[in-house]
Amino acid sequence: MLNDFDDQFDASFRPAWAHLWHVWRLIIPRRAIDGAIVWGRVWRRYDGRRWIYKPLVEFEAP
After folding, report:
1. What is d(CA 28, CA 44) in angstroms, rounded to the nearest whole number?
2. What is the pTM of this model?
3. What is the Cα–Cα distance from 29 to 18, expressed in whole angstroms?
4. C-alpha distances out from residue 51 to 9, 30, 32, 46, 59, Å
5. Which residue in 14, 30, 50, 59 has its CB near the most CB atoms, within 10 A?
6. In degrees, to the nearest 5, what angle opens at C-alpha 14 toward C-alphas 38 and 43?
7. CA 32 to CA 42: how far, in whole Å?
């Protein structure tokens, strides 16, 4: 017989940090979501299978 924890456990469970984008510094170039090559400071998130990257767009405040 399974206990309550086993009943509530979901195979798609991910830690809280996996749902968030965070700033990361890439030394080795990687492919972004749109297929472009990115390096330097980028946004990074884990989607359950792999890390996905987005370019970090910085702007100058007036």
Report:
1. 14
2. 0.63
3. 21
4. 23, 10, 10, 4, 25
5. 30
6. 20
7. 9
Which SS3 state, helix, strand or coil, does residue 34 take?
A: coil
The residue type found at 51 is: W
For 49, the token pair is 């299978």
Higher pLDDT pick, 3 / 62: 62
Compute the distance between CA of residue 41 and CA of residue 58 in angstroms, rounded to an integer.
10
The one-character DSSP state at 52 is E
Residue 37 confidence (pLDDT) above 90: yes
49 φ/ψ sector (left φ>0, alpha ψ -120 to 50, else beta): alpha
